[in-house]
């Protein structure tokens, strides 16, 4: 999993390759590297760690060359060292790779048996040697790649550079995305349209199994059976501007603070305020035929899906199955005819979610995609696109994408309920009114920032933290725990409050803060009973509730976070803010790298 860029340029390419990598750093930041052809030899610059390190290497030792490839890595095979950094190279071939070559072990043994010297522990270097061998045997690069590609199992996007053909790049994709960009006398390869946005908007998306030869004379795409094919050139519409942090110290803080605006932006696309209607941008699709819903997603997007399950079942009375995407395909899921699969993804590129989408599509399910990146693979492959309008999310820990996903999913639940005859115009009007309150309620919730910052120190010293919630607050408890783990490296778990007594309560002592998410409402008293069970055992509770809830149960807590009163429908959207802010301030107190936490990547493009 990684990001790749290639440029067949008119002028030196190193700076532009580095710029392209900056746009792809969301795919991993374990190491980075660039290769070009200079005076008949392949030259490389590589560095472990974040892209800034490669920038320093390039500043100290600049790299010439008008044709080059570049890579930012999230380590799969082999540690995040300089030696394992891409591009991998022999003296004739350099190569960058996004994906996993699953049969790399037998291929590696084969190469070693033939006396090839391998320098890294990566699966990628194997491909480099396989292509090199063919060239050494006398094949030209196109024939060499044609021989090697069918030998590779797994997922890959490749960009390959050749010492003896400095006016050529070859790209290939299977399972991992790759686009071709067309500039003025230049051509490009990139993991996505965003990477190429400052260079060109003219993009063609390669299909599964495609490979492409870029030369000065033109570009030729081949399909998996090696037939020459045409792939349409479209305008990507991707913005070439690099996003900055504004007045914030971190992207994550900026994105938390953007939520009132971007959620309003998202809701604008789904609410018809004047008519008191909730609509979807898929007017021709008849939701009344939906018999069952399957939701599949990963990470934070999965928790948005968990909240939606409550809504779909409560409002539309449609049964919902939900799975983390990495489990979905491998448990032989039963999907009824006439089912709707909803994939939820900020990036639209997460490999597990994409694989689930394709699996369900092949089984005849209608696919709806709730995605934030409109140019993404999922957005293109789904039958029904339900965009979130969160804008680019840079912080690895997802925040504004989550609340925008919830806004879209609430709109979808209401539409499903309408289609099923389970929502009257009066009820729809009330839902419109509640959803319309969300931006102001989010603003109000952000007003608790200082209070949350003040109590973050008490959590920052903990080794373990528990989050509890019931109903739609249960997924929020999971999301709160995930946020804390991701960016502060504190072990945290989310539990359904009622499940505490079945095991986790054994963990409670005076060193374990327990964050209880409990807006006043129908489930409040039950959650408070569970909270009291924790307190009775010396547990230190932080209660997140509204004034009414805090008045009723705040006594004896080590801290309370008072939220605005929110209708139960919108509470999960509004209560996302304090859990995000708490994780953020704890991470800042601990001094971790908030926007690029260790071992993680924003978009996980390997299974
Ligand atoms: C990664 C990110 C998470 C994100 C998850 C799913 O693990 O670090 O923040 O929730 O992927 O990503 P997606 O783009 O599919 O929503």
From TrEMBL:
One GO term of the biological process aspect: amino sugar biosynthetic process
Pfam families per record: GATase_6, SIS
InterPro entries, sorted: GATase_2_dom, GFAT, GFAT_N, GlmS/AgaS_SIS, GlmS/FrlB_SIS, Ntn_hydrolases_N, SIS_dom, SIS_dom_sf
Enzyme's top EC category: transferase
Subcellular location as annotated: Cytoplasm
Catalytic activity field: D-fructose 6-phosphate + L-glutamine = D-glucosamine 6-phosphate + L-glutamate
One GO cellular component, as annotated: cytosol
Domain SIS: 281-422, 455-597
Entry's Gene Ontology molecular function annotations: carbohydrate derivative binding; glutamine-fructose-6-phosphate transaminase (isomerizing) activity
Top-level taxonomic group: Bacteria
Residues at the active site: 2, 602
Oligomeric form and interacting partners: Homodimer.
NCBIfam families: glmS, PRK00331.1
Protein name: Glutamine--fructose-6-phosphate aminotransferase [isomerizing]
């Amino acid at each position: 999993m990684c990001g790749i860029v290639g440029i067949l340029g008119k002028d030196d390419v190193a700076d532009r390759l580095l710029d392209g990598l900056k746009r792809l750093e969301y795919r991993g930041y374990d190491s980075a590297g660039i290769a070009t052809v200079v005076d008949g030899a392949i030259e490389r610059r590589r560095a472990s760690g974040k892209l800034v390190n490669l920038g320093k290497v390039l500043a100290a030792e600049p790299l010439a060359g008008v044709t080059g490839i570049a890579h930012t890595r999230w380590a799969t095979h082999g540690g995040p060292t300089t030696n394992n950094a891409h591009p991998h190279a022999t003296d004739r071939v350099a190569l960058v790779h996004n994906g996993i070559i699953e049969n790399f072990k037998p291929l590696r043994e084969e190469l070693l048996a033939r006396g090839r010297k391998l320098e890294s522990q990566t699966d990628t270097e194997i491909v480099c040697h396989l292509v090199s061998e063919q060239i050494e045997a006398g094949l030209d690069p196109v024939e060499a790649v044609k021989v090697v590609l069918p030998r590779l199992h797994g997922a890959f996007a490749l960009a390959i550079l050749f010492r003896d053909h400095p006016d050529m790049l070859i790209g290939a994709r299977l399972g991992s995305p790759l686009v071709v960009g067309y500039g003025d006398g230049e051509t490009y390869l990139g993991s996505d349209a965003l990477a190429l946005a400052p260079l060109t908007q003219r993009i063609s998306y390669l299909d599964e199994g495609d490979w492409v030869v870029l030369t000065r004379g033109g570009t030729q795409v081949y399909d998996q059976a090696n037939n020459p094919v045409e792939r349409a050139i479209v305008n990507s519409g991707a913005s070439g501007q690099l996003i900055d942090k504004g007045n914030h110290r971190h992207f994550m803080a900026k994105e938390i603070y953007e939520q009132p605006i971007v959620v309003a932006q998202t809701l604008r696309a789904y609410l018809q305020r004047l008519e008191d209607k909730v609509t979807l941008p898929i007017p021709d699709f008849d939701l009344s035929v939906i018999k069952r819903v399957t939701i599949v997603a990963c990470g934070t997007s999965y928790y948005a899906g968990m909240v939606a399950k409550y809504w779909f079942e409560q409002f539309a009375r449609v049964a919902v199955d939900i799975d983390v995407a990495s489990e979905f395909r491998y448990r032989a899921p039963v999907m009824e005819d006439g089912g709707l699969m909803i994939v939820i993804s900020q990036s639209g590129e997460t490999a597990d979610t994409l694989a689930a989408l394709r699996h369900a599509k092949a089984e005849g399910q209608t696919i709806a995609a709730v995605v934030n990146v409109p140019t993404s693979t999922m957005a293109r492959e789904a039958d029904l696109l339900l965009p979130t309008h969160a804008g680019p999310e840079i912080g690895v820990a997802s925040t504004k994408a989550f609340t925008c996903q919830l806004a879209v999913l609430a709109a979808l639940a209401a539409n499903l309920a309408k289609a099923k005859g389970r929502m009257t115009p009066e009820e729809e009007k009330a839902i419109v009114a509640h959803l319309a309150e969300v931006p102001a309620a989010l603003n109000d919730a952000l007003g608790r920032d200082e209070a949350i910052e003040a109590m973050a120190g008490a959590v920052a010293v903990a080794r373990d933290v528990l989050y509890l919630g019931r109903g739609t607050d249960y997924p929020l408890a999971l999301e709160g725990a995930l946020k804390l783990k991701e960016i502060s490296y504190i072990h945290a778990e989310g539990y359904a409050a009622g499940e505490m007594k079945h095991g986790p309560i054994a963990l409670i002592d005076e060193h374990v803060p327990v964050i209880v998410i409990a807006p006043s409402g129908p489930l409040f008293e039950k959650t408070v009973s569970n909270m009291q069970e924790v307190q009775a055992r010396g547990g230190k509770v932080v209660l997140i509730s509204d004034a009414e809830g805090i008045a009723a149960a705040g006594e004896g807590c080590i801290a309370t976070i008072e939220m605005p009163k929110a209708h139960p429908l919108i509470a999960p959207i509004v209560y996302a803010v304090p859990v995000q802010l708490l994780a953020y301030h704890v991470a800042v107190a601990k001094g971790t790298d908030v926007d690029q936490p260790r071992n993680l990547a924003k978009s996980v493009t390997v299974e």
